[in-house]
Specification:
Blueprint: E1 5-8, H1 21-37, H2 41-55, H3 58-65, H4 70-77, H5 82-85, H6 90-97, E2 102-106, H7 111-121, E3 127-131, H8 144-154, E4 161-165, H9 168-176, E5 180-184, E6 194-196, H10 202-208
Parallel strand pairs: 1-2, 1-4, 2-3, 4-5, 5-6
Length: about 220
């Protein structure tokens, strides 16, 4: 079946983990737990670890046990200096321009945060859709229902999609749906069809899959 779409995770996938942007979000999550729930630093860290272990996503635990407003939480934790951390990436833009597939973002963050990231990187025009946590009904990746919602909206099957992510469980779900999966991270950390150390490595994978316009070369 012909590949039509390429689905990108956002944080730590479109930009390198080493830039520290997602670390700023993690610090805001801890600050939210301290300020909104009145927890100490140690208590906040423990609660986040527990919710990540039990639910895979801090917000899910907070909605279940503390009945917090998800929009308040999401606005708070994403209030970070995206523009001060990320800069225009011409190499990434050139890469995107040579991918003959419809490009979409699937993120557990907010649409506004995704827009700030891709605008800062200079790749906003290349993406046709942003599927954020609100679109998912606050049911985050890697839940199967989330992927079904995205695929139904696009009107495609998993076999018609590629998926890039830095979180192995997300790729496991995508692979179960027939997607070709690409893990962004260290080798040996995920059961995916392909592994790349960072986003620029996508070119080689797409060339191997004959899904890259070779008339231009990323510098």
């Amino acid at each position: 079946m012909k590949t039509r779409y390429i689905l990108f995770d956002l944080d730590n996938t479109l930009y390198p983990r080493e830039c520290g942007l997602f670390h700023l979000i993690e610090e805001r999550i801890k600050e939210y737990l301290r300020s909104r729930l009145g927890l100490t630093q140690a208590e906040a860290a423990d609660l986040r670890r527990r919710y990540l272990r039990e639910y895979g996503f801090t917000l899910v635990g907070l909605m279940k046990h503390q009945a917090i407003d998800p929009e308040d939480y999401l606005a708070f934790v994403h209030e970070v200096d995206v523009e001060g951390v990320l800069a225009e990436d011409r190499g990434l833009a050139q890469l995107m321009s040579r991918i003959p597939l419809t490009k979409v973002i699937v993120t557990n963050g907010t649409e506004r945060h995704a827009q700030r990231v891709i605008r800062s990187l200079g790749v906003e025009p290349f993406f046709s859709h942003i599927f954020d946590i609100a679109f998912m009904g606050y049911c985050p990746k890697p839940h199967l229902s989330t992927f079904h919602r995205v695929l139904d909206h696009l009107g495609v099957t998993g076999e018609e999609c590629l998926m890039l992510d830095d979180y192995p469980p997300t790729l496991a779900t995508a692979r179960a749906l027939g997607m070709t999966t690409i893990y962004v991270g260290e080798a040996g950390q995920a059961a995916a069809d392909y592994q790349i150390g960072e986003i620029k490595g996508l070119e080689k994978v797409l060339r191997d899959l004959q899904l890259f316009d070779a008339r231009d070369v990323v510098q």
